[in-house]
Write a structure and sequence with these properties.
Length: 331
């Protein structure tokens, strides 16, 4: 068996010279080395990847990787690529992640609260009972005939979180051997548990929650929560998001006639990018806290994006490169 070839280890100074030999401008070696040591060569490489020269066929068409479908690129960089701009782009992305997490936290807590309120008023222990769950979720056949009970999987995860919870209200109920009501147990839920419970609920229960957000399409809200959860995970794990191409375009089935989304007129490209997720998050945030200034902070940050030629605003899903479309959001 042939041993795979592993790239040799390089010291920071060698990495600097490798980048310089490929056409990247580096004005301050000491700072560049410091940033490589703080952030990591391969972490930063995701930010300078669009700046590498694309591979094309004889007709000038971009060649793409068969597996990833991403454009294939040469090692050499395009013109006017400076490592300082790449570092600024990395910091820009970091600030974006922080703003996204700020909004997702608000959505998560609100959803936990209204699920507990609307379903808890029917039964304070509804979260333990199959009566509130879509029967199709209880036993689902997978490939090869395997039967999976997604509801039991969810309940097992909940019980684990209850067991390890340090929340005073949870500890108090357990210490006094009291059943934990819905409005208390949600304090130990994480985003994934919240999103999955909403997805598992029967249609009647989903609609009770969706109406609190003036939505009449629970399937679309399920999609929003899943896609926002994926964005949250990218942010929580410090992954690049500014030009991320998410696998699925975020669904707008159910709000096509809403004036807000009609004005935005988001195409599939926008709905697969961060822009589409910003639009949906802001729609929810406005329902939760009408006085929020979150979008203004997002717009200001987007407009401050480092002016790297190979990293345009359209890579975020915007229709053009003029910056954040404030007029479409009436801000």
């Amino acid at each position: 068996m042939t041993t795979p070839i592993i790239k040799p280890h390089c010291e920071y100074s060698e990495l600097i010279e490798k980048l310089r030999s490929r056409g990247m401008a580096i004005d301050d070696d000491a700072r560049a080395i410091r940033k490589l040591s703080q952030i990591g060569y391969y972490r930063l490489s995701g930010f300078w990847y669009p700046c590498r020269k694309p591979k094309t066929d004889n007709d000038g068409n971009y060649l793409k990787d068969e597996k990833t479908k991403l454009p294939l690129r040469h090692d050499n960089f395009q013109e006017n690529v400076n490592i300082s701009d790449i570092i600024d782009l990395y910091l820009f992305d970091k600030k974006l992640r922080q703003l996204m997490l700020d909004a997702v936290e608000r959505i998560e807590i609100f959803m936990r609260s209204i699920i507990a309120h609307e379903i808890g008023k029917i039964d304070p222990l509804a979260y333990e009972k199959e009566d509130f769950i879509n029967p199709k979720i209880i036993k689902t056949k997978r490939k090869k005939g395997n039967v999976v009970n997604y509801w039991f999987d969810w309940l097992h995860r909940l019980n684990h979180l209850v067991d390890i919870s340090k929340e005073d209200s949870i500890i108090s109920h357990k210490a006094n051997n009291k059943p934990i009501p819905f409005w208390a147990v949600v304090e130990c839920w994480d985003y994934g548990l919240m999103s999955k419970y909403f997805e598992n609920m029967n249609g009647r229960c989903q609609n009770l929650v969706a109406k609190r957000l003036d939505l009449d399409n629970a399937t679309m809200l399920t999609n929003w929560l899943v896609e926002i959860g994926l964005l949250r995970n990218k942010c929580a794990h410090h992954s690049r998001i500014w030009n991320r191409d998410f696998s699925n375009p975020i669904s707008l089935k159910g709000v096509q006639n809403d004036p807000y989304f009609q004005k935005l007129n988001l195409d599939e490209h926008a709905r697969k990018k961060l822009y589409g997720r910003i639009a949906v998050i802001w729609y929810l945030i406005k329902k939760i806290g009408p006085g929020s200034t979150w979008l203004l902070r997002v717009a200001d940050l987007v407009d401050s994006k480092p002016p790297v030629d190979s990293c345009p605003f359209t890579a975020m899903g915007f229709k053009d490169n003029s910056g954040f479309p404030r007029e479409l959001f009436s801000i």
